[in-house]
Amino acid sequence: KQWYQRRVRGDEVEVPDEIAEKIKNLEKQGYGNLPICMAKTHLSLSCDVNKKGAPTGFKVPIQDVRLSAGAGFVYPLAGTISTMPGLPTRPAFYNIDVNTETGDITGLF
C-alpha cells in the first residue's frame, strides 16, 4: 500500500483476505524481504485503462500475488492481467534439426 501511495498516488490497495493469507505465507517462508514488481496494465498508472495520464484518488484491486523465487521477487497482480509462463532452461530450438538432403524437419513436435 505504501509503495502505491508514494509512487503512483493511488488512494487504496484492496487486498482480499485469501491474498493477504498468501502474503503472510510467503513472509513465513522467508520471502518477506524480496523486492516487489507490480504487474498491472501499461495503459494507466491505475488499473483502469480508461484513466489516462497520471490519475489520482483510485483504488488498486490486488487479484493475486505470486513468487518468482529464482528471479528473486514477488509480484502482485493488480486488476485483470495475463502473465506469460516461464521459459524452460533449455530452449526448444536445440531439439530441431533439418535434414539437408531431404529437407525434412525433426524435433518440432
Structural notes for this entry:
- The chain has helices at 2-8, 17-31, and strands spanning 12-14, 59-68, 73-78, 97-98, 105-106.
- It has 109 residues and is α+β, with helices and mostly antiparallel strands.
- The strands form two sheets. It has a three-stranded mixed sheet.
- The termini are far apart.
- The model has no long low-confidence stretch (mean pLDDT 85).
Attribute tags:
21% strand; 109 residues; single chain
Topology:
Layout: H1 2-8, E1 12-14, H2 17-31, E2 59-68, E3 73-78, E4 97-98, E5 105-106
Parallel strand pairs: 1-2
Antiparallel strand pairs: 2-3, 4-5
What fraction, in percent, of the residue positions are helical?
Answer: 10-25%
The end-to-end span amounts to 45 Å
Mean pLDDT value: 85
User: What's the helix-strand series?
Assistant: HEHEEEE
Compute the number of strand runs: 5
Radius of gyration: 20 Å
Return residue spans where pLDDT drops below 50 for at least 5 consecutive residues: none
Q: Give the assembly state of these chains.
A: single chain
Number of helices: 2
Envelope shape: elongated
Strand order of the largest sheet: 1-2-3
Strand content of the residues, in percent?
15-25%
Strand pairing plus helix content: what structural class? alpha+beta
The major pleated sheet works out as: 3 strands, mixed
Q: What's the short version?
A:
The protein has two helices and five strands. The protein is α+β, with helices and mostly antiparallel strands and 109 residues long. Strands 1-2-3 form a three-stranded mixed beta sheet.
